[in-house]
Design brief:
It is built from three helices and four strands, in the order βαβββαα. It is 37% helix and 13% strand.
């Protein structure tokens, strides 16, 4: 009845390894898995992502936090707007080559 999807961020979902290993097929499979997660929720769907994530490969002694962007699947599902996605990308310093488009699914209602 209740589904929690945690960490829906670029390079986590879709995972960068799936994209590197299988290109478009990998993206399609990651999208399918995400859709399955979304549709398992009968009453409540909770989706989270971080604004910043710790950089485990930083060379200093202090923790470094790198900005992240939400998963493109959130835009495709209509859970966040393209404007919010583009704003997150700009804040994280990413230059988009294209912005994902909503797939015509019903818009999510704020709770």
């Amino acid at each position: 009845d209740v589904v929690y999807l945690i960490g829906l961020e670029h390079k986590i979902l879709p995972h960068e390894k799936a994209l590197a290993d299988r290109a478009e097929r990998g993206l399609d499979e990651e999208r399918r898995l995400c859709y399955v997660g979304f549709t398992r929720a009968r009453k409540i769907l909770r989706v989270t992502w971080c604004a910043k994530r710790q950089d485990n490969y930083a060379k200093g002694k202090t923790a470094r936090f790198k900005p992240t962007i939400p998963s493109q699947f959130l835009v495709e599902a209509g859970l966040i707007t393209r404007d919010d996605y583009q704003k997150a990308m700009a804040e994280a310093g990413f230059v988009p080559t294209s912005t994902p488009k909503a797939k015509g699914r019903p818009k999510a209602q704020a709770s």
